[in-house]
Design goal:
67 residues
């Protein structure tokens, strides 16, 4: 697995955990850690997670085998 794909996976995991916390407990961990959901740092992380999700979509339709 390439470094880029590992980074995409890490960001997708962060986003998934954050959405799980929002859904279960109404707690936004990213916003809490980075100074609120309107802070520039939170918005950067949210944007990166969204971009990672979009970049990961083609991986659903490719047939790769690791050697």
């Amino acid at each position: 697995m390439s470094c880029f794909k590992k980074l995409l996976l890490l960001l997708a995991i962060i986003g998934g955990i954050n959405w799980g916390l929002i859904g279960l407990f109404s707690f936004d961990a990213v916003a809490w850690l980075l100074g609120g959901s309107a802070s520039i740092w939170s918005r950067i992380v949210f944007t990166l997670v969204g971009i990672a999700a979009l970049c990961g979509i083609p991986g659903l339709f490719t047939d790769e085998t690791d050697e």
